Amino acid sequence: MSEKQHKRPSHRGKVALLLTPALVLIGVIILYPLISGIVLSFKSDPVLNQQDGFFYPGGFVGFRNYGYWLTQSCPTGHGSVGCPPGTLANNFWPAFGNTLFFTLVTVLLETILGIGMALVMAKDFHGRGLLRAAVLVPWAIPTAITAKLWAFLFSEQGIVNSIFHAHVAWQTDPWAARFSIILADVWKTTPFMALLILAGLQMIPKDLYEAARMDGANAWQRFTRITLPLAKNSIIVAVLFRMLDALRMYDLPYIMVGSNPDSPTATLSQLVVAAIRQDHVNAASALSTLIFLLIFLIALCFVKSLGSKVAHQAEPVVAEEE
After folding, report:
1. S-S: 31 plus which of 23, 27, 204, 251, CB 3.0-4.6 Å?
2. How confident is the model at residue 212 (pLDDT cuts 50, 70, 90)?
3. Which of 69-73, 126-130, 158-162, 189-193 has maximum average pLDDT?
4. From CA 146, how far away is CA 229, in angstroms rounded?
5. pLDDT tens digit sequence for 258-282
6. What is the Cα–Cα distance from 289 to 99, expressed in whole angstroms?
7. Where are the beta strands (DSSP E) in 164-265?
8. Dihedral over alpha carbons 297, 237, 131, 208 (to 10 degrees)
9. Gyration radius of the chain over CA positions
């Protein structure tokens, strides 16, 4: 017993030594840009020196860059006032609403469709492997190509309007444009959800379904009392991953509708890129930090509210079925 206790410190030391390079690499790749972006968000934009013609880093301005987005406060010589029309800050709250709207609608639809697709792919039938490979094709296509494909379908003289003999302005009408983006995103990302949920379904013992059938449980009862409770962990992981990705949506609305920050489908990520293109790097850093905080808070609340429930519910369900 004493010899084992003696060996533990050396074993832990070896583990720490092996993990150190990976932790240092992660710190350099993730922590350094994150900290640098937060530091930049508290500084003003570089200042041009009229004497030598060089730009010099701006000084500390506190939360002014955050107020620029949250309260549309544009600094002037007499303090901060409301930003004039055409300023990027005026598009913050509409873009914030679009981002949340796209996230909620797409994740909900993709979860429902993903569960259905996973249930089909989990069954034993001839050609199951071919079906699984075919389902993953939309997810494997790069987002930019997907956006161009759907932009062609929803163009003014595109296939959609031709089939339905309609004249819908899919790129200018606010709700039509939002619908087209949601449809394209659901088409592309539902296979990703189905793949993650399928991994959870395959972990459920087949004996549970056989026992339920012998007890007279119908398909709906087997789904609600066996499949959903035991696959809830994988469903939560899939929803969380997809939600974090949807909050950073950029490619689809940018390519399908347009890059204009005041477009009806503009998202927060589009405002970040627009601010950088207008040389407002520090304001863009502040908005990036706000997006990071939004994603962190949503993920934290999601895990705290649902993760603990899953941990407490999974064991009783397994024990009951056994």
Report:
1. 27
2. confident
3. 189-193
4. 34
5. 888 888 899 999 999 999 998 888 9
6. 16
7. none
8. -150
9. 25
